[in-house]
Write a structure and sequence with these properties.
With 406 residues, this protein is α+β, with helices and mostly antiparallel strands. It contains 11 helices and 22 strands.
Length: 406
């Protein structure tokens, strides 16, 4: 065990585990809210934003999809405006592009109309479009109806993460994988890294993303959820001129994934995807990446089997699109009939850290829990990058409260 002596020489006040955009936003928020607070960030990779932050489609989400009053809705709407302002202030590449959400089947029309209502409840301006009006925005896209959401945008989230790291004034230690935590509620926490370094802090914030449940367990707190990794596979469009901006299908409300969509990124290229398939490791960026211990942990969680039982039809379709490019192309053609198989070129995939309850419920909202001298961010998938500044402030508030109560 890591030993914490009664007279502790703390290395920092708050230790943040995880150097993705949420962890770095938390460090930034702490030092802005309480100048002089010493913050250290431990990140196991050699640089920031190497996983969910740096492997998404770069969209600044409007917040239209999320239940009114939820953390996702409140933080995404607020965070989108703040992200645009942050990027403008620091000269980070971004653009407010707007996006289309397109219904291609009649049974999607009620869900599209429900999104209009949800958008209005969340304070988001929405324009309803008939089939002929879609071409005003996207000449090659076909659908029965659509809505235009003007506040959606795109940005360079890796650039945002780097700027947060710099502006926070925190000590960032890369190549520091946490392997052991000794928490003493009366004293603080001591963390050992794989390299053998020990960092002592008065409080710990867990923003470990794909490993947040494991880090919570190391502190002695029961996360009551398990992170189940889902890989999102992307293609790049070889004819980017086919798409002007951002085009989304109408999402299935029973599943927390938005479906295959078209995203013109900040670099001018068009990403197509992602689908969503189970990953065989927490960093399982391909079918060939298998980590037996992690896979066994996923299979041992009762919620994994409940997901399979409830959503096997949806999952079978996603798997088919993963192994068959032709099937993926068919899905894209629902929105973009002109696309050909040779137009799609595989590009880097991502992995979504999805928290799942024991009964198989997919945690829908952001999930932040507290323990003695600890704050755990246990569910922060999309739109967490969009919402990272408000999330960081909320986590910082809880971390500073833990310091005050210590």
């Amino acid at each position: 065990m890591v030993q914490v002596r009664q007279k502790v020489a703390y290395d920092c006040d708050v230790l943040v585990v995880g150097g993705g955009i949420v962890g770095l936003s938390t460090a930034y928020a702490i030092t802005r809210a309480a100048p002089g607070t010493r913050v250290t960030v431990l990140e196991k990779e050699t640089g920031p934003a190497r996983h969910q932050t740096g492997r998404n489609s770069g969209v600044i989400h409007s917040g239209i999809y999320y239940k009114p009053g939820s953390l996702k809705a409140r933080y995404a709407v607020r965070g989108a405006a703040e992200m645009v302002k942050f990027c403008a202030e620091y000269g980070i590449a971004h653009a407010v592009t707007g996006k289309l959400i397109v219904a291609t089947e009649r049974d999607e029309l009620p869900r599209l109309h429900a999104l209009v209502q949800r958008g209005r409840e969340n304070g988001i301006p929405v324009r309803e479009l008939g089939a002929s009006q879609i071409a005003e925005y996207e000449p090659e896209v076909r659908g029965l109806a659509a809505i235009h959401v003007g506040t959606t945008g795109i940005c360079d989230y890796v650039g945002v993460a780097r700027q947060l790291a710099e502006a926070s004034g925190a000590e960032i230690r890369y190549g520091s994988r946490v392997v052991q935590v000794d928490r003493r509620p009366s004293l603080g926490v001591a963390v050992r890294t794989a390299a053998g370094d020990v960092v002592r802090a008065r409080a710990l914030v867990n923003c470990a993303g794909l490993y947040c449940d494991e880090v919570a367990g190391l502190t002695g707190d029961d996360p009551e959820v398990r992170i189940i990794p889902f890989r999102g596979e992307y293609y790049e469009l070889a004819r980017p001129e086919l798409v002007k901006g951002l085009v989304y299908p109408v999402p299935d409300p029973a599943f927390p994934f938005l479906g295959v969509h078209l995203t013109r990124g900040i670099d001018g290229g068009v990403h197509v995807g992602p689908n969503a398939v189970p990953a065989l490791a927490r960093e399982g960026y391909g079918w060939g990446v298998v980590r037996p211990r992690e896979l066994a942990g996923t299979l041992a969680w009762p919620g994994s089997w409940q997901i399979a039982r409830r959503h096997w039809r949806y999952g079978a379709g996603e798997l088919r699109r993963s192994v068959s490019k032709a099937a993926f192309v068919d899905a894209v053609r629902r929105l973009l009939p002109a696309v050909e198989e040779e137009d799609l070129v595989r590009t880097d995939p991502g992995v979504r850290a999805q928290a799942v309850l024991r009964d198989g419920t997919l945690v829908d909202d952001f999930l932040i829990r507290e323990g003695a001298r600890t704050v755990h961010v246990l569910n922060a998938p999309s739109p967490a990058a969009t919402a990272s500044l408000p999330i960081g402030r909320e986590v910082a508030r809880r971390a500073l409260k833990a310091l005050a109560e210590a």
